[in-house]
TrEMBL record:
Biased composition (Polar residues): 90-108
Biological process annotations from GO: rescue of stalled ribosome; ribosome-associated ubiquitin-dependent protein catabolic process
InterPro entries xref list: RQC_Subunit_NEMF
Protein name: Uncharacterized protein
Domain of life, per lineage: Eukaryota
Organism lineage string: Eukaryota, Viridiplantae, Streptophyta, Embryophyta, Tracheophyta
Region feature (Disordered): 74-108
GO cellular component: RQC complex
Length: 108
C-alpha cells in the first residue's frame, strides 16, 4: 500500500487537475513521483505530464472538494483496521476485519 498526497486545482470552468504525489516525495528509483490527472466534468479523465495554468484563487467548488477530501483522510486515520489472516487446510484463506469477514478458497 502506497500513501499518496493529493492536491486539487481548477484550470477552467468544470476542468480540474488532481496532483497525486508519493507521501515520501521520492519513489523507489530515487525520482520524484507525481501523477497529474486532468478531469473535465462529464467529458474526460486522463493522466497528463503538462501542468496547465491555474487560477490564482480556487473556485468555491474546489474549496469544498478539498475540505471533503481532507475530512475523509482524517476519518481514515481514525479508523483502526486490524487484520487477522488464518490459513486452513486445502488452501482456504480467511481474512477478518472488525466490521466484516471475507472467505476465499484458493485452488492448489
Amino acid at each position: 500500500m502506497v500513501k499518496v498526497r493529493m492536491n486539487t486545482a481548477d484550470v477552467a470552468a468544470e476542468t480540474y487537475v488532481f496532483k497525486l504525489m508519493n507521501s515520501s516525495g521520492v519513489s523507489e528509483s530515487g525520482e520524484s513521483e507525481k501523477v497529474l490527472l486532468l478531469m473535465e466534468s462529464g467529458v474526460r479523465l486522463h493522466s497528463t505530464i503538462y501542468m496547465r495554468d491555474k487560477s490564482n484563487t480556487p473556485s468555491g467548488f474546489t474549496l469544498k472538494l478539498r475540505k471533503h477530501i481532507r475530512t475523509l483522510e482524517k476519518k481514515e486515520k481514525k479508523k483502526k483496521r486490524k487484520y487477522q489472516k488464518k490459513r486452513g487446510t486445502h488452501g482456504q484463506s480467511l481474512c477478518t476485519r472488525h466490521y466484516h469477514t471475507t472467505v476465499t478458497h484458493l485452488p492448489r
